[in-house]
Structure formats: structure tokens, C-alpha cells
Design goal:
It is elongated, with a radius of gyration of 36 Å. The two termini are about 70 Å apart. The protein has a domain of about 80 residues. It has five helices and no strands. Helix content is about 60%, strand content about 0%. The chain is an all-alpha fold and about 180 residues long.
Length: about 180
């Protein structure tokens, strides 16, 4: 059985060679249809009646999504700064704990057996100072809670927990609330 090279004959019919494409690919999609007419004036290509409010809703959603993303990012950066500041405080305290403990023990020992361990003055790097300054400004709203406390671990611990609650939980909740509401 041979097939002719031209399709003028009856075999194979041209419809059998055509690919079966979805209606949109064959040109029956929105661009192939007749232009829409505006409801008010019957003008071809006019926007449908609810198009302006749809555009405003899309713009409001974009702004809301942008603000919620910004709030989440700010929340994470603030929490990271406060956590790093607490970690630096803990490292600093534990590194000087041995020297401090030796000095405390030597105060109670007889004078002949005393050996003084001297603490070297520690200089903080510029990054350490900046992190501490930013952290103290972020936790300054909580200074009234810890006012009068003597234990530095308790002060820094309570500041850390309150900062994580306010900046981590509350800002994160506000960001999620904004995203859902709009």
C-alpha cells in the first residue's frame, strides 16, 4: 500500500494528519473571540464594570504582602541581634568566670597562700560594641521590669525572653494577620 505525496486524493485525508490540539491552541481562546463590549456604552475593548475594583484589590494585596514580608524580615533580624548579643554576653561571662572564682576563693584563704589572678581588661571589637548597643536599645522598653536587679544573668535572660516575645511572636503574628486580612 502506498501513500500519494499530494493530499488531493482520498487517502490519507488531511483531517487525519492534523494534530489534535486543545481549543485554546487552535485559536479558540480569548484572543480569537469577538472583543468584549463595555456594559455602559457598548464600546469594543472597554473594561468590564468591576475591573477598577479588582485592580485596587490587587494593589492592596501587593502592598499588604510587601508590608508583611518586611515585618517578618524585621522580626527575624531583631531576634537574631538579641540572641547574638545574649550569646556574646554568655561567652564573655563564662570566659571570665574562672578568674573571678579564683579571686573569690583567694579572699577567704590565708595571706601566705594567696595568688592573685589578674583579669585583663577586655576590649570589645567594633562589631561586638555595635551589637550590644543595638540590643540594649531594642531591649530598653523592658528596663523597667529588671530595674534594681543585681544578677546580670537574670537581667539579660529576662530581656532576651521579653524581646523574643515582643519582636518575634508579636511582629510575626501581626505580619500573618496582615496577610490574611487583605
Amino acid at each position: 500500500m502506498s501513500y500519494p505525496l499530494d493530499y488531493e486524493g482520498s487517502w490519507p485525508p488531511p483531517a487525519a494528519l492534523a494534530l489534535r490540539l486543545p481549543a485554546r491552541a487552535r485559536g479558540a481562546g480569548p484572543s480569537a473571540r469577538a472583543p468584549r463590549r463595555g456594559a455602559a456604552h457598548g464600546v469594543a475593548g472597554a473594561a468590564p464594570p468591576g475591573a477598577a475594583s479588582t485592580t485596587e484589590a490587587n494593589l492592596a494585596r501587593l502592598v499588604s504582602d510587601g508590608l508583611s514580608t518586611l515585618l517578618r524580615l524585621a522580626s527575624r533580624v531583631i531576634c537574631l541581634i538579641v540572641i547574638v548579643s545574649f550569646a556574646l554576653f554568655a561567652i564573655e561571662q563564662t570566659s571570665s568566670a574562672s578568674t573571678h572564682q579564683q579571686n573569690e576563693l583567694n579572699e577567704g584563704a590565708p595571706a601566705a597562700s594567696r595568688t592573685t589572678a589578674t583579669e585583663k581588661p577586655k576590649t570589645k571589637s567594633a562589631v561586638h560594641r555595635t551589637i550590644d548597643e543595638v540590643s540594649s536599645s531594642l531591649t530598653s522598653p523592658f528596663s523597667g521590669v529588671t530595674a534594681g536587679w543585681k544578677n546580670q544573668w537574670a537581667i539579660h535572660g529576662v530581656d532576651l525572653v521579653l524581646a523574643l516575645l515582643l519582636y518575634g511572636f508579636a511582629l510575626g503574628f501581626l505580619a500573618r494577620f496582615m496577610r490574611v486580612r487583605v
